[in-house]
Predict the structure.
Amino acid sequence: MATSLNPNGAPVNSRPLPQDPMIRSLIARARASQMSRRTMLAGAGAGASALALAACSTGGGVTKPTPAADKSANDKTLNWANWAAYIDEDDSGNYPTLQAFEEQTGIKVNYEVAVDDNNTYYGKVKDQLALGQDIGADTVCLTDWMVARWIRFGYTQELNHDNIPNLANLEPALREPDFDKGRKFSLPWQGGFAGICWNKEAFPDGLASVEDLWSSELKGRVGVLSEMRDTMGLIMLQNGVDIAGDWGDEEYDAAIDVLTEQVESGQVRNIKGNAYLEDLKSGDTLAAICWSGDITVINAEAGDKWEFAIPEAGGTLWNDNFLVPVGSTRKTNAEALMNYYYEPEVAAEVAAWVNYITPVVGAKEAAAAIDPELAENQLIFPDEQTLSQAHIFRSLSGAEEQKYQAQFQSILLGA
């Protein structure tokens, strides 16, 4: 059966506020402003599609750029590009953990909300990356599959693990991704799940699988995500495919056939990015393939009407990761920042605000000191059983990425 993500018996998307007044304030602000870190091609149509497909082929067959010389010893500054609502923030708009880092290290950080989605950010900087130029960011947090592309094209700098002793606190399950064995070029920042959700008033007994989304009771009331790796990943898992393993065109085509049938029959109403939440609120859709943190937010904003679960066949697990662009001259400063955020107490404070999965071992125990119930939230601190049912979509070659995204996009355009 589907895996509920709350071990204490409360609804999976019920999120108790910590007792600490400051942390309560941080979470309240997060609920009001948090946006999906996974939005891709949402409402963008063919224009964004063309950008995405063009970006897939950029960098192939060219000489990799040479990393810039590190000037951190004489330049105590750092530019950090990240997504919106993705760090702790107080009522004055300051970032408490970042201010503490600056005080401890003397490194002044320019924190910029510069990433709206993976492809649009990449589209802005890819030409500079190809030339080995400074893109205005010394570290940027991007999603697994995009990080894989940067590593493949030589657009990242190799990390000096000696400068990141807290790397020992990295969750073991995240240490050897296929796109970065040994974490030579990237470190996880935050992560989350893709699974299924449903309106609890309409379906009080819940749903268990992706197959349940194709029930006649739900015809015309189902939504799926415009993020290829999550929607196709869940369908492939339902088909019995190990999405982290050795699969190819046959397995992907079979999943495409499933999605095509459900779209053409009218079973699937919409294929969207972040806008799928509006369809849930309005009742246009009663069930969907969705992202874990989003369901927490919608319940906080519009009432406790929806439930999230990892399907019985498994869900996807994704991470946004630190990397150092090839043209940065402040790599050592960036490594100091990564090391700081891998301190369990710091990671716990960030997790309490962003409500996504922290990659730092020991953060759960630190969170328990803030609020024991917070430390039991499986959306933030999943245990081994929960993690065992989530899978990372394997990295794709440039040719695979272009082909598979084009197949998926053709369904989006016809929906």
User: Anything to note?
Assistant: The two ends are 30 Å apart (CA to CA). The mean pLDDT is 85. The first helix runs from residue 21 to 33. The chain is about 35% helix and 15% strand.
